[in-house]
Specification:
The protein is of the alpha+beta class. It has helices at about 5-25, 45-50, 55-70, 150-155; strands spanning about 90-95, 100, 105-115, 120-130, 135-140, 155-160, 170-175, 185-190, 195-200, 200-205. The strands form 2 sheets. The protein has a 5-stranded antiparallel sheet, with no helix packed on it. A 5-stranded antiparallel sheet has the order 2-9-8-5-6, with helices on one face. The longest helix has 24 residues, at about 5-25. It is flat.
Amino acid sequence: MNRRALLIAIGLIVVVVGGAGAWWLGSPLFLDQVVEEELPFVIPSEKEMEQMSEDERTKVAEDVMDAAAKMPDKEMEEEMPKMADDAQPVVVAQGQFQDADEFHKGAGTVTLYRLADGTHLLRFEDFRVTNGPQLHVLLANHAQPVNRADLEETGYVDLGGLKGNVGSQNYEIGANIAIDSVKSIVIYCKPFHVVFSTATLGSGS
């Protein structure tokens, strides 16, 4: 092989290797990395649950709860919203999250604030609860509800899904919600109607 051919061959190798390296470094800018993980458990529909026996429903609930509890914690670290000096929030009530039972555990402080515009804010701090499927935050009219019957008998307002099972977080409450009747904050599993943790509210003073 003459000198010219050797130089051409070396040049082609450099181009190929360099191009491959450039693609390896730059391709993440142009290619999406799509993840479609399935839940490690299956939540039956309400119709399917109704068709099961009591023992079957209990077994499904136990399996799902056990799998959900082993999932990684979903952590939140929201700060308290900033307010103008003349519009500082007023503490209306406070409480401490407690375990619902030996399996469903909760801890941390909840504070209910009244804002200057008439709305309210619910603030969780140092919060932690056992992980579970479709956990929701409820404003309950029962001081210490332990089951679905307690909640439905006295009434509650669903603020939506829990943002994370660990960490500080905020939940806005509209001015149309009657705060005076709220006696506790409940972390509740919607599919299986299970109370995970309850914080009975006391005076904010």
